[in-house]
Amino acid sequence: MDPTSSLLMLRRSTRCSAYAAMLGICIGISASTASTNSTTSDQALLPWQQIEAQGKNQDVYFYAWGGDPQINAYLQWAAKQVDDKYDINLVHVKLSDTSEAVSRVLAEKSANNNDQGSVDLVWINGANFATMSENSLLLKQWANKLPNFSLTDPDNNPTVNYDFGVPTDGMEAPWGQASLTFYYDSLSVNTPPTTLDELSTWTAQNPGRFSYPKPPDFLGMSFLKYALVMLHEQHNAETGQNTKTQLNLPATEQNTALVLDPLWAFLDDFHPTLWRDGEQLLQTGAQMRRLVDDTELSLAFTFSAPEVPAAVQRFDLPKSIRSYAMSDGSLSNTHFVAIPYNTSHPQAAQLVANFLMSPEAQAHKQTPAVWGDKTVLVQSTLSPEQQALFDSKQTHPSALPFDSITRTVSEPHPSWVDAIMQGWQMRYGVSP
Predict the structure, then answer these.
(1) Element (H, E) at 90
(2) pLDDT, block means (10 residues), the chain with 432 residues
(3) Hey, how many other C-beta atoms are within 10 angstroms of the C-beta on 15?
(4) Are the beta carbons of 336 and 121 closer than 8 angstroms?
(5) CA–CA distance from 153 to each of 158, 177, 380, 423 (Å)?
(6) What is the separation, in whole angstroms, between the first and last Cα of the chain?
(7) How far does Cα 166 stand from its chain's mean position?
(8) Whole-angstrom Cα distance, residue 429 to residue 431?
(9) In the chain, what's the furthest Cα-to-Cα distance?
């Protein structure tokens, strides 16, 4: 067994047996267990030179989604870089869902493990960040002190200071930006729909050629949020009312019907035009991609644009696939890395987060053949030499064309995820 596997097994052997009950821990955490370990907090405030000195030659267990081969390969590259720079052993702990890492930190907190946590760094945003923030599970006021944070122009760039409308308070370091991206088979579709209205018309004219994964799947939820935002923009334009502002506020008993009823009305008409008459929705984005490859679907979508050309190169999708962005708006968000309050290696985790935000790492990540993830750095903050790292290169024919996203729309408040999921299950939740 290699040393990395041995370390990971040792950690697992000492974890609290309460892990299986972690979902019930979110409510009622006492003030005593909610306190952040003072030693870790003090370490987070050390001058950067001391953090560099103390963070070298450490392990960093990075809990991150492991479902994309390109992303996994990028993290292997990043691991090699931080090993060369700092002798840091960066271990990618692959997750199927970020909530697994949230649950692990919650379980450790319930066991009063406040300074020897198994999670050193976590890829996070949205509802998972809100949960960790509300339960005091994250190290505070460190990300805004990283040397490379200034390259995001934080004073003029609110996307790095807010996560789904929730202030980050220095608990997250921005890592990249992603948007909902659609793709189609150009052999069966001449002109794909570019707005929600056009999509509804297209599915009516091409029944069974489109579908979406049912919630709680991340991609399915993203599609529902996109539809919800567009429906309220249409409603506001027609009536002059500003119901869309409710999406930036927490979901409550008073506003839930007002916000979600237009979505249910849309889906009532939309579902019968989908694959298998909408009676059997998809389970995952991978299943959606397979159905496109099998020519059962002609149109699909992803939140990881480089997934499309990568799938074509792996022969999981045909060469005739083309990617595009909706013209009425692309649901977009900034994703971050965060450090749990009880990390075992706080200084090393900060070194890794700072490197991931460096021009070198951001430019490599933005390269379409590597990942294609949009940088969080603002070009005006970079030197000419740093800007040159981002010079665009020729892209794959199936990749999303550069600068094709003409309008982005923000994610609703994270509380709307549960509201949508509960309402959807009550109305459309059926066994596959």
Answers:
(1) strand 89-95
(2) 41 40 37 41 66 96 91 96 98 94 97 97 93 96 96 90 90 94 97 98 98 93 96 88 86 94 98 96 94 98 87 92 94 94 98 98 88 88 93 79 81 91 91 48
(3) 15
(4) no
(5) 9, 15, 9, 39
(6) 41
(7) 15
(8) 7
(9) 65
